[in-house]
From TrEMBL:
SUPFAM superfamilies: P-loop containing nucleoside triphosphate hydrolases. One of its GO terms (molecular function) is phosphate transmembrane transporter activity. Keywords: ATP-binding, Nucleotide-binding, Transport. This is Phosphate ABC transporter ATP-binding protein. It comes from Kouleothrix aurantiaca. It holds the Pfam family ABC_tran. GO terms for biological process: phosphate ion transmembrane transport. One of its GO terms (cellular component) is membrane. The keyword ATP-binding applies. Residues 17-258 form the ABC transporter domain. The lineage of its organism: Bacteria, Bacillati, Chloroflexota, Chloroflexia, Chloroflexales. The keyword Transmembrane does not apply. InterPro entries: AAA+_ATPase, ABC_transporter-like_ATP-bd, ABC_transporter-like_CS, P-loop_NTPase, PstB-like.
Length: 269
């Protein structure tokens, strides 16, 4: 379990997310237990660990997307700066504007490239057309997609390649100017070249956004993240928990926990 000592490996002054004593349940099953985790602003934090240890469950807790699962329940505190994410007064629509998400499979809407990016900003308020055009261009440029699509903005997004579709999903996610970007195995459906392009994009985006990424790809975690959170499953109750948190370099070169070392070297998981 993460201790205060472990969370203090990151500079506490610049934390975007503070997760305290969190237990996550599906019905009676506790999928994740006892998580204490601070997530640094404008940095990439990777969550790694064997299948079923609760990485996605923890990630999806941050923007309350698991609210859609009726049996899901949270204990503990999850904060985005001063916002208590699970307070009854928290506006979930506003939370999801502040915490964007990119999923495992590219999932553009079956609409034009332009409409995919313009959708979110239009949902949150009327924007004059020239400003909307500028915003769409800015997001597509930030997602390293503008040059590929500038001449076909009004064609269907479904005509793009998988890698382009995933970059479009990043452009769509940043169009509402979120503070945090959650990525759940965002490269798992992409070829190696598209994967590297997405990783370069992640490194660019961290100048502006706090990024939390779940990945099974150890090289990706090592290349693209600043901090790594190692999760594992308890052998007794099968609940996932955090076993080590640290700077990615430390986790990959000098892990404190034998289980982390076994996992990052491919001997476990
Ligand atoms: N909607 C759900 N209802 C019930 N149980 C669920 C649900 N989603 C996940 N679980 C269970 O919670 C546990 C954690 O699942 P989760 O998907 O978070 O793990 P993970 O580490 O992301 O796995 P993977 O790496 O395979 O994607 C697993 O035992 C899983 O079966």
């Amino acid at each position: 379990m993460a201790t205060e000592k472990e969370t203090a490996t990151q500079d506490t002054a610049t934390m975007a997310l503070r997760i305290r004593d969190v237990n996550l349940y599906y019905g009676a099953f506790r999928a994740v237990k006892g998580v204490n985790l601070d997530v640094s602003s404008r940095a990439v934090t990777a969550i790694i660990g064997p299948s079923g240890c609760g990485k996605s469950t923890l990630l999806r807790t941050i923007n309350r997307i698991n609210d859609r699962v009726p049996s899901f329940r949270v204990e503990g505190s999850v904060k985005l700066h001063d916002l208590d994410i699970y307070a009854p007064t928290t506006d979930v629509v506003d939370l999801r504007r502040r915490v964007g998400m990119v999923f495992q499979r590219p999932n553009p809407f079956p609409q034009s490239i332009f409409e995919n990016v313009a959708f979110g900003p239009q949902l949150y308020g009327r924007i004059p057309k020239p400003q909307l055009n500028d915003l769409v261009e800015e997001c597509l440029r930030a997602a390293a997609l503008w040059d590929d699509v500038k001449d076909k903005l009004h064609q269907s997004a479904l005509g793009l390649s998988g890698g382009q579709q995933q970059r479009l999903c990043v452009a769509r996610a940043i169009a509402t100017q979120p503070e945090v970007l959650l990525m759940d195995e965002p490269a798992s459906a992409l070829d190696p070249i598209s994967t590297l392009r997405l990783e370069e994009l992640i490194l660019d985006l961290k100048q502006q956004y706090t990024i939390v990424i779940v990945t099974h790809n150890m090289q990706q975690a090592a290349r693209a993240s600043d901090y790594t959170v190692m999760m594992s499953m308890d052998t007794a109750d099968r609940a996932g928990h955090v076993i080590e948190i640290g700077q990615t370099k430390q986790i990959f070169t000098n892990p404190r926990e034998p289980q982390t070392e076994a996992y990052v070297t491919g001997r476990f998981g």
